[in-house]
Amino acid sequence: MEIGSWVGFLLAVFIGSYVQSVAGFAMGMIIVAVVGGLRLFDVPTLGAVASLLTIFNVIMALRGQTHHIHRRLFTWLALGQVPAIYLGLLMMMWLDGHTRWLLEMCLGLFITLGGLSMLLRPHPWPQVSGPLRTWLTGVLGGFVGGMFSASGPVLGWFGYNQPLRLVTVRATLLACFVLTTSLRTLMVGAHGGLTPSVWTYAAVGLPVVFLGTWLGRNFAPPFSELQLRRSAHLLLLTMGIWILVTATHTALN
């Protein structure tokens, strides 16, 4: 890549790792949205690199926070994610270079509407979600994570609607990403997708992930819980619009 492309890639990695360490989600989608939107990598390489970098970020961000994980929500989310990750990965392989834009557009529309609804009504649901809704969210998040290595918008939308302390929401989301990205990476490796270029891009990005995650853990913005919820909702809305724009651009070209 040229110098400008490297700068764009590393900037996306830095912002994504910082935001995820603060909010508990968004790293994968920021990397996919920015790097994918700029067409710096092909889709399989982009997903593999995003997964490897996210694993490192999540392990750092979750250190010392595992006791905050909501066990029941995590269990049901995981039960939905595990089988759906593989299905999403197979779908990505099949659609790569063909009609992937259509699924991107559906994802962008879902995230945009969800982010808009939460921004207008930033207060969480009256009670913690039951097993069925949680499992279905895990299925959708796992499928999106398998396809794009970016289940954050789906799980973030679900997590920030729960009537829980934000430290619990953040830890539970991070635990889900450990599962999603680790399983996806193993599956990609089994299909021969962990190429030398994937390892090279990931190795270059690791120091930036370390810096962004460390800053997020130690210098988080001084937001109240309501402000952080609003910021997360605005971030989701921005991501959804970005995905819709890039998917439309892909469809027209």
Shape: globular
In which range does the helix fraction lie?
over 70%
How many domains comprise the coordinates? 1
| E-strand count | 0
The residue-averaged pLDDT reads: 86
Q: What is the helix tally?
A: 10
Rg result: 17 Å
User: Which structural class do you get from the secondary structure elements?
Assistant: mainly alpha
- Major sheet: none
Beta-strand fraction estimate:
under 5%
The end-to-end span amounts to 23 Å
SSE string, helix = H, strand = E?
HHHHHHHHHH
Q: Low-confidence runs (pLDDT<50, min 5 residues)?
A: none
Features:
0% strand; 253 residues; mainly alpha
Quick description:
The chain has 253 residues and is an all-alpha fold. It is built from 10 helices and no strands.
Written account of the structure:
- The structure is a single chain.
- The protein has 253 residues and is mainly alpha-helical.
- The protein has one domain (3-252).
- It has helices spanning 3-23, 27-37, 43-62, 71-95, 100-120, 131-148, 152-159, 166-190, 196-218, 225-252.
- α1 runs antiparallel to α2, α1 (3-23) crosses α9 and α4 (71-95) runs parallel beside α8.
- The longest helix has 28 residues, at 225-252.
Topology:
Elements: H1 3-23, H2 27-37, H3 43-62, H4 71-95, H5 100-120, H6 131-148, H7 152-159, H8 166-190, H9 196-218, H10 225-252
